[in-house]
Amino acid sequence: MAERENHSETSNHTIHSKALSRALSHEESFVDGHLTHAAFASIAILTFITFVGNFTQLQLSAALPTIVSEFGISVTTGQWLTSIFQLVMGVMVPLTAFLTRRFSTRQIVITSMIVFTIGSALAWVGSSFLMVLAGRLLEAIGTGVMWPVLQITVFSIYPLSRRGAAMGTVGVAMSVAPAIGPTLGGIQTDANGWRSIFLTLTLIGVVSLLLALFGLRNFGTNDPDARADFFSVALSVIGFGGLMFGFTNIEAYPFTHPMVWLAMLIGLVGIVWFVMRQVRGARRYAAETAALNAAPAASSAATSESSSTAAPSAAPSSAESSTSSSSATRQPQRRPQPPLLDLGVLKNRSFTVGTICAALSFFAFSSIMVIMPLYIQNDRGYSATISGLVMMPGAFGMCISQYFGGKLLDRLGARPVALSGTMILLFGTIMMSLIDLHTWIWWVSIWQFVRQIGMGFIIMPITTWSLNCLEHDEVSAGSAVTNTVRQIAGAIGAPVLVILMETLTKLHGGDHIAASIFGTQWTLRVSAFLVFVQMLIVIFGVKGDGAGSSHEAAQKAAAKLRAAREH
Questions:
Q1: Average per-residue pLDDT for the chain
Q2: What is its main location (predicted)?
Q3: Which of 230, 295, 248 minimizes the C-alpha distance to 94?
Q4: pLDDT for 331-387, tens place per residue?
Q5: 24-217 maps to which CATH number?
Q6: Cα–Cα distance measured from residue 94 to residue 87, given in angstroms and rounded to the nearest whole number
Q7: What pTM does this model have?
């Protein structure tokens, strides 16, 4: 009897495992305008795990001054704890197209969560800055591919007319991370020290791993024979890592020092080499694919011609046929492999414009999330908890605008939504730059709230629109490209503007706090100029199908009204 029960339990477990491993088709995921239960549960798990990545990336911003003080390092060196996270994620994202082609959704997510949990535990117990940095490195590797995987999954499930609302809803969850990440990080730092942050992340990693093991389903198909170009991966690490290393060393060394110019030169050479290799790889892939597709057609035509002209007596013998078949078996055609990062999607003008807008947004966003906590804590003397609370409303503003921005994208198009967002973001950044030594501290909170509303109307709608402009089979490559550019822009943005702030502070001279505030003010003004450039790009670049305009929206509304009257 006991053996029967054990056999039954084993059988049920096997059936459950097979059900989880089987990929859900589009028809099984989206029925009658709604997600099925299995698809909804999987999307919810992917959204939560992606939220964990964003939460992890931003949680240290309020604790950074404390960590810098404890380890006795410079602000720029401490900034590596956030910059390396973005940089590694930027290096991991190009692998997304390959990983989603080679491995199943469950394999990617489960492995990612194991690496993330190990990294969190290492940072928790790390006795030196380098150990904590190594832990952050593993955390970034673990979460680097999650947002692209979620993005590709949403685009594969939802129809074109519903993607804006779907991405807006997912974006709400993503925007909660900036709200509770820095706030909880500040509270934990004041109450139990910064190490408690990594203890929390370790526990969250375990929970995420269990959710992936027992509730996540697979989507799409995978090819076990797909191969990655790891030399391109190495080039991306050398290129972007070298450039970042050079920027980071500007504070400690003059520009003429090899630690600065040589590192930046190596980085630029690596990036150029990486781009050229991807371009050549794309050309080779296109040529090999065309040749492979042409071969069956030529063979079919030759067979047809031969059968129509040859006499019955000229039919090949069975031995000859067997030899020919054996030869074909011995020499299987090797399937062409696409480049690691398919830059061919940048030929699509609308996609390129959307990618540039998203990059500028991330460049400005990452720097503000570092600069303002330094102003609040170091210049104004407030605690890490207050710093987190001051920055928190902005994330809720981004939640609201991303949700409604996605819906407005489906209804009006990208152009009016993104243009409104850039105007709001520009106004909010200008007003924030008016801070001084005696500014009411909640002035920062108010204008950060305004800025984030503008940001929410830009990032998710413009990204969704740019990916909608691609063919269905290009979405994976497009997602990898746009997320790579965004992450690199974010990773470079923070140190560049922090270095600019520190340079302006030194140029001001005199009282340290007054000089620091002067540097912060002008750094915010530089950020405002970047937003102004972004607004011009939206005005002159966001056009075409799906871009929309107020005039087009009015025409559609008038047409619907006429149709209603006729009926």
A1: 78
A2: membrane
A3: 230
A4: 455 667 778 777 888 888 888 998 898 888 877 776 677 788 888 888 787 877 787
A5: 1.20.1250.20
A6: 12
A7: 0.72
Q: Are the CB atoms for 490 and 86 separated by under 8 Å?
A: yes
- Residue closest to 448 by CA, chosen among 535, 365, 517: 365
Q: Which class is 347-566 in CATH? A: mainly alpha
144 SS3 class: coil
Q: Do domains 24-217 and 347-566 have the same CATH topology?
A: yes
Intra-chain end-to-end CA distance of the chain, in Å? 70
pLDDT, residue 189, reads: 82
> Which among 514, 499, 22, 37 is positioned nearest to 244, based on CA atoms?
499
Query: Where do the H-state alpha helices sit in 60-128?
Result: 64-71, 75-78, 80-92, 96-102, 105-125
* Domain extent listing, the chain: 24-217, 229-288, 347-566
Helices (H), 163-257: 163-192, 195-215, 230-248
Q: What is the Cα 342 distance to its own chain's centre?
A: 16
What is the DSSP secondary structure assignment for residue 30, as one 8-state letter?
A: E
Q: What is the tens place of the pLDDT at every residue in 498-545?
A: 777 777 887 777 777 888 888 888 888 888 898 899 999 999 888 866
CB atoms within 10 A of CB 337: 18
